[in-house]
TrEMBL record:
Pfam family, one: MreD
Keywords: Cell membrane, Cell shape, Membrane, Transmembrane, Transmembrane helix
Organism per entry: Andreesenia angusta
The protein, known as: Rod shape-determining protein MreD
Family to which this protein belongs: Belongs to the MreD family.
Subcellular location per the Swiss-Prot or TrEMBL entry: Cell membrane
Any GO BP annotation: regulation of cell shape
Recorded GO CC terms: plasma membrane
TM spans (from-to): 6-24, 36-57, 63-83, 95-118, 138-156
């Protein structure tokens, strides 16, 4: 996928996540559209694009929202690499796969955050983390994953018929 297109997607998503999606929160939970986009890009465009998108998105989130640089960067980068390794092995039009992978990636991100904070000796209750935020974010991410994935898949598809000049 074109690097400029990826950069625009990440930037537009970040702006929407900071402005519009904060007003659409349920409780104090907003969907992690950066995670959904990293999963979608990884499935559609491969490991390299997914890892770069995860690195940039995670760094943006860490700089703007997190007191600790690296939590989201490490998690989203890892998600991009792991999901991107499935690129050539899956049927990309299957809408169930990005749904399941987004839910799995959401759980993975919470475990990464918990362990990162635990090793930094920052007091976090695992039960509160799981019951408080993760379940709500799982529902929210799952509800919008298919719509984001379909939009990204349709924008990525190349025409199946290519015309060339005859010799």
């Amino acid at each position: 996928m074109n690097p400029i297109k990826i950069a625009v997607i990440i930037l537009v998503n970040f702006i929407l996540q900071v402005t519009v999606l904060n007003n659409l929160s349920i409780g104090s939970t907003v969907p992690n559209t950066s995670l959904i986009i990293v999963v979608a890009l990884s499935l559609i465009a491969g490991k390299r694009s997914g890892a770069v998108a995860g690195l940039v998105s995670g760094l943006l989130q860490d700089v703007m929202f997190s007191g600790v640089i690296g939590i989201n960067t490490l998690g989203l980068f890892s998600v991009g690499l792991l999901v991107g390794s499935l690129d050539q092995k899956v049927f990309k039009e299957n809408l169930f796969l990005p749904f399941v992978l987004t839910l799995s990636a959401t759980v993975f991100m919470y475990f990464v955050q918990f362990f990162f904070l635990y090793f930094l000796k920052i007091e976090v209750s695992f039960i509160d983390l799981i019951l408080g935020d993760m379940i709500k974010e799982l529902i929210y991410n799952g509800a919008i994953t298919v719509f984001i994935y379909k939009a990204m898949l349709s924008s990525y598809k190349e025409p199946s018929v290519k015309f060339t000049r005859g010799l």
